[in-house]
Write a structure and sequence with these properties.
The chain is α+β, with helices and mostly antiparallel strands. The chain is built from 5 helices and 16 strands. It has helices at about 110-120, 130-140, 155-160, 165-180, 240-245, and strands spanning about 1-15, 20-25, 35-45, 45-55, 60-65, 70-80, 90, 145, 165, 185-190, 200, 205-210, 215-220, 230-235, 245-250, 255-265.
Length: about 270
């Protein structure tokens, strides 16, 4: 499948910015199950300083905000060829050792509610892969998908206690629970082509766990499936903080308003 992606992120500042830096993880790489055919990034109100590969093997672009602007716009557009590998991306790459994906972070660390979800899983009955699929289903059964109830700083435990969350929360709960079972797990940010619409309000997120004999395997808890040809992987990390599409800092603005425009659609041969 050939997926066309157009993603615009717009930051509006309450006052002109004197200085600012933004770290962009918005460039997908060719990996198992996807080949990047074309990808372009454009900036308004910002200047690209450097592009590099981080410790998680993500392509990162560092941009500086033009002093005095009240708005920064980052536009990404490209074409990615994808295939259905049943969520399997295979061998580990990057500079992070596998044991680092067993260590909990503040966003993934289990508390009483996450441990209660995990207690519903009898790992003695299943091999690892089957147990992880059952864990994914348990997370969704206990934490209903509900936009607007949590934020980017909400931990997996907080979302589990609330019983509500979005894809980011589902991923954090799954990752924390998998690590508690001794299975390395990580966070994935990317894109998903929806079946019912092209325009979307946000990018997507899911989890990957490392299974002996298979390597990294994806679990989209929110949709109850492993990623297929409708998915584009962009960045990975130990949690959202390491794989967030945009992180940064600015001086001079008291308030910032964020707006995102995203379109993901299949490109047919005659287009």
């Amino acid at each position: 499948m050939r997926l066309k992606v157009a993603h615009t992120t717009r930051y509006e500042f309450s006052q002109p910015v004197s200085h600012g830096l933004q770290r962009l993880r918005l460039t997908p790489k060719s990996t198992a199950g996807q080949q990047v055919l074309d990808w372009r990034m454009q900036y308004d109100g910002a200047v690209e300083e450097v592009s590099y590969e981080d410790h998680n093997h993500n392509r990162v672009t560092l941009v500086s905000v033009v002093p005095g602007v009240s708005e920064v716009v980052v536009h990404c557009e490209g074409l990615v060829a994808t295939a259905d590998n049943h969520g399997i991306t295979g061998h580990h790459s990057g500079h992070m050792p596998m044991w680092s994906f067993l260590a909990q972070s503040p966003l993934t660390r289990p508390g009483p509610r996450m441990r209660a979800i995990l207690s519903q899983l009898d790992v003695s009955k299943d091999e690892t892969l089957a147990a992880l699929h059952r864990l994914s289903a348990l997370v969704l059964a206990n934490v209903a998908y509900a936009p607007g109830e949590t934020g980017v700083h909400t931990s997996g435990e907080e979302a589990a206690a609330l019983g509500l969350g979005v894809c980011q929360d589902h991923a954090h709960i799954f990752i924390g629970a998998a690590r508690a079972l001794g299975v390395p797990a990580r966070y994935v940010s990317g894109y998903l082509m929806m079946d019912d619409r092209i325009e979307q309000e946000a990018s997507h997120a899911w989890a990957e766990a490392h299974v002996d004999g298979l390597g990294w395997v994806g679990f989209d808890v929110s949709n109850g499936i492993s990623p297929d040809e409708r998915y584009v992987r962009v960045a990975t990390g130990r949690d959202y903080a390491e794989a967030a599409p945009v992180t940064g800092m600015s001086w001079g603005a008291h308030e910032t308003r964020l707006a995102v425009q995203l379109a993901v659609e299949q490109q047919h041969a005659n287009q």
